[in-house]
Design goal:
Number of helices: 8
Structural class: alpha+beta
Strand order of the largest sheet: 1-2
Number of strands: 4
Strand content: 5-15%
Distance between the termini: 69 Å
Shape: elongated
Number of domains: 2
Largest sheet: 2 strands, antiparallel
Length: 183
Protein backbone atom coordinates (compact mmCIF):
# COMPACT_ATOMS: atom_id res chain seq x y z
CA UNK A 1 0.00 0.00 0.00
CA UNK A 2 2.83 2.41 0.79
CA UNK A 3 4.31 1.95 -2.67
CA UNK A 4 1.15 2.73 -4.68
CA UNK A 5 0.89 5.83 -6.83
CA UNK A 6 -0.13 8.98 -4.98
CA UNK A 7 -3.34 10.90 -5.72
CA UNK A 8 -1.18 13.67 -7.23
CA UNK A 9 0.49 11.22 -9.60
CA UNK A 10 -2.87 9.80 -10.61
CA UNK A 11 -4.20 13.32 -11.21
CA UNK A 12 -1.14 14.18 -13.33
CA UNK A 13 -1.68 11.04 -15.41
CA UNK A 14 -5.34 11.97 -15.86
CA UNK A 15 -4.38 15.47 -17.02
CA UNK A 16 -1.95 14.02 -19.57
CA UNK A 17 -4.01 11.09 -20.90
CA UNK A 18 -7.63 11.93 -19.94
CA UNK A 19 -7.84 8.39 -18.54
CA UNK A 20 -9.04 7.80 -14.98
CA UNK A 21 -6.24 6.14 -13.00
CA UNK A 22 -7.96 6.15 -9.57
CA UNK A 23 -8.74 2.43 -9.62
CA UNK A 24 -5.61 1.33 -11.49
CA UNK A 25 -3.01 -0.78 -9.68
CA UNK A 26 0.05 1.38 -10.18
CA UNK A 27 3.25 1.79 -8.17
CA UNK A 28 4.91 5.16 -7.51
CA UNK A 29 7.78 4.15 -9.79
CA UNK A 30 5.45 3.13 -12.63
CA UNK A 31 3.48 6.35 -12.27
CA UNK A 32 6.67 8.43 -12.29
CA UNK A 33 7.88 6.66 -15.42
CA UNK A 34 4.51 7.14 -17.18
CA UNK A 35 4.33 10.82 -16.23
CA UNK A 36 7.84 11.41 -17.52
CA UNK A 37 7.24 9.49 -20.76
CA UNK A 38 3.70 10.63 -21.56
CA UNK A 39 4.28 14.18 -20.37
CA UNK A 40 7.16 14.71 -22.83
CA UNK A 41 5.78 16.98 -25.58
CA UNK A 42 7.77 15.07 -28.21
CA UNK A 43 6.50 11.64 -27.07
CA UNK A 44 3.09 11.81 -28.79
CA UNK A 45 4.55 13.35 -31.93
CA UNK A 46 7.16 10.60 -32.29
CA UNK A 47 4.88 7.69 -31.46
CA UNK A 48 1.85 8.81 -33.50
CA UNK A 49 3.94 9.80 -36.51
CA UNK A 50 5.95 6.59 -36.60
CA UNK A 51 3.06 4.35 -35.66
CA UNK A 52 0.56 5.73 -38.17
CA UNK A 53 3.07 5.58 -41.02
CA UNK A 54 4.14 2.05 -40.16
CA UNK A 55 0.56 0.91 -39.66
CA UNK A 56 -0.49 2.43 -42.97
CA UNK A 57 2.31 0.68 -44.85
CA UNK A 58 1.44 -2.65 -43.22
CA UNK A 59 -2.24 -2.11 -44.04
CA UNK A 60 -1.46 -1.35 -47.67
CA UNK A 61 0.82 -4.39 -47.92
CA UNK A 62 -1.92 -6.58 -46.49
CA UNK A 63 -4.27 -5.35 -49.25
CA UNK A 64 -1.74 -5.52 -52.09
CA UNK A 65 -3.67 -8.28 -53.88
CA UNK A 66 -6.68 -5.96 -54.20
CA UNK A 67 -4.50 -3.30 -55.82
CA UNK A 68 -2.83 -5.88 -58.04
CA UNK A 69 -6.20 -7.11 -59.32
CA UNK A 70 -7.24 -3.54 -60.13
CA UNK A 71 -3.95 -3.12 -62.01
CA UNK A 72 -4.53 -6.27 -64.05
CA UNK A 73 -8.07 -5.20 -64.83
CA UNK A 74 -6.91 -1.73 -65.88
CA UNK A 75 -4.21 -3.17 -68.13
CA UNK A 76 -6.87 -5.28 -69.86
CA UNK A 77 -8.12 -2.17 -71.63
CA UNK A 78 -6.16 -0.77 -74.51
CA UNK A 79 -6.50 1.43 -77.54
CA UNK A 80 -4.48 2.99 -80.30
CA UNK A 81 -4.93 6.65 -81.13
CA UNK A 82 -3.53 7.95 -84.38
CA UNK A 83 -2.35 11.55 -84.49
CA UNK A 84 -1.01 12.91 -87.78
CA UNK A 85 -0.50 9.37 -89.02
CA UNK A 86 1.52 8.30 -85.97
CA UNK A 87 -0.05 5.60 -83.74
CA UNK A 88 0.04 5.95 -79.95
CA UNK A 89 -0.77 3.06 -77.57
CA UNK A 90 -2.94 3.72 -74.56
CA UNK A 91 -3.50 1.27 -71.73
CA UNK A 92 -6.28 1.59 -69.17
CA UNK A 93 -9.58 3.40 -68.89
CA UNK A 94 -8.32 6.94 -68.50
CA UNK A 95 -5.83 9.22 -66.88
CA UNK A 96 -6.81 11.29 -63.92
CA UNK A 97 -5.71 13.16 -60.87
CA UNK A 98 -6.77 11.86 -57.48
CA UNK A 99 -6.01 13.27 -54.05
CA UNK A 100 -7.16 13.15 -50.44
CA UNK A 101 -9.07 15.91 -48.70
CA UNK A 102 -9.15 16.37 -44.95
CA UNK A 103 -9.28 19.02 -42.25
CA UNK A 104 -5.91 20.78 -42.60
CA UNK A 105 -5.75 21.24 -38.82
CA UNK A 106 -5.75 17.47 -38.30
CA UNK A 107 -2.09 16.50 -37.92
CA UNK A 108 -2.87 12.77 -37.96
CA UNK A 109 -4.70 13.14 -41.28
CA UNK A 110 -1.79 15.14 -42.64
CA UNK A 111 0.59 12.40 -41.51
CA UNK A 112 -1.49 9.74 -43.27
CA UNK A 113 -1.69 11.85 -46.43
CA UNK A 114 2.07 12.41 -46.55
CA UNK A 115 2.82 8.75 -45.85
CA UNK A 116 0.30 7.59 -48.48
CA UNK A 117 1.86 9.82 -51.13
CA UNK A 118 5.35 8.60 -50.25
CA UNK A 119 4.45 4.91 -50.15
CA UNK A 120 2.47 5.04 -53.42
CA UNK A 121 5.50 5.80 -55.58
CA UNK A 122 8.03 3.85 -53.57
CA UNK A 123 7.17 0.74 -51.56
CA UNK A 124 3.78 -0.07 -53.07
CA UNK A 125 4.85 0.55 -56.67
CA UNK A 126 7.91 -1.69 -56.13
CA UNK A 127 5.79 -4.50 -54.66
CA UNK A 128 3.36 -4.34 -57.58
CA UNK A 129 6.19 -4.40 -60.13
CA UNK A 130 7.64 -7.51 -58.45
CA UNK A 131 4.22 -9.21 -58.58
CA UNK A 132 3.74 -8.39 -62.24
CA UNK A 133 4.96 -11.15 -64.60
CA UNK A 134 8.14 -10.04 -66.37
CA UNK A 135 6.55 -10.75 -69.75
CA UNK A 136 3.72 -8.26 -69.11
CA UNK A 137 6.12 -5.70 -67.69
CA UNK A 138 8.29 -5.86 -70.84
CA UNK A 139 5.26 -5.79 -73.17
CA UNK A 140 4.05 -2.59 -71.53
CA UNK A 141 7.47 -1.00 -71.98
CA UNK A 142 7.57 -2.08 -75.62
CA UNK A 143 4.16 -0.46 -76.20
CA UNK A 144 5.46 2.79 -74.72
CA UNK A 145 3.20 2.49 -71.66
CA UNK A 146 5.48 1.35 -68.83
CA UNK A 147 3.81 0.09 -65.67
CA UNK A 148 5.21 3.04 -63.71
CA UNK A 149 3.30 5.45 -65.99
CA UNK A 150 0.10 3.42 -65.72
CA UNK A 151 0.41 3.32 -61.92
CA UNK A 152 1.03 7.08 -61.79
CA UNK A 153 -1.64 8.21 -64.23
CA UNK A 154 -4.60 5.85 -64.35
CA UNK A 155 -7.53 7.25 -62.42
CA UNK A 156 -8.93 3.85 -61.42
CA UNK A 157 -5.62 2.79 -59.90
CA UNK A 158 -5.21 6.04 -58.01
CA UNK A 159 -8.76 5.81 -56.72
CA UNK A 160 -8.36 2.18 -55.60
CA UNK A 161 -5.15 3.06 -53.76
CA UNK A 162 -6.58 6.10 -51.99
CA UNK A 163 -9.76 4.21 -51.17
CA UNK A 164 -7.62 1.82 -49.09
CA UNK A 165 -5.97 4.81 -47.40
CA UNK A 166 -9.43 6.21 -46.55
CA UNK A 167 -10.49 2.89 -45.04
CA UNK A 168 -7.33 2.88 -42.92
CA UNK A 169 -7.94 6.47 -41.79
CA UNK A 170 -11.57 5.73 -40.91
CA UNK A 171 -10.51 2.72 -38.83
CA UNK A 172 -8.34 5.16 -36.85
CA UNK A 173 -11.15 7.68 -36.37
CA UNK A 174 -9.76 10.11 -38.95
CA UNK A 175 -12.14 11.65 -41.47
CA UNK A 176 -10.71 11.90 -44.97
CA UNK A 177 -12.26 11.92 -48.46
CA UNK A 178 -11.18 11.39 -52.06
CA UNK A 179 -11.36 13.88 -54.89
CA UNK A 180 -10.74 12.69 -58.43
CA UNK A 181 -10.96 14.25 -61.89
CA UNK A 182 -10.22 12.96 -65.37
CA UNK A 183 -7.10 14.41 -66.89
Amino acid sequence: MDNTATPRQRWALYCITKKDYRNEILSKEEATKLIKELGDPNYKKKSVSKTLSDELLNYLKSHIDELYNVCLNEMGYGSIVEINGKPYNFVGCGCGITWLTYNKNNKRAEEINNAARKYRHNEIESILIKKLPNKIYKELQKKGCPFEAIWSQMQNLQYAYYELVIKFANEHGINMNIKSVLD
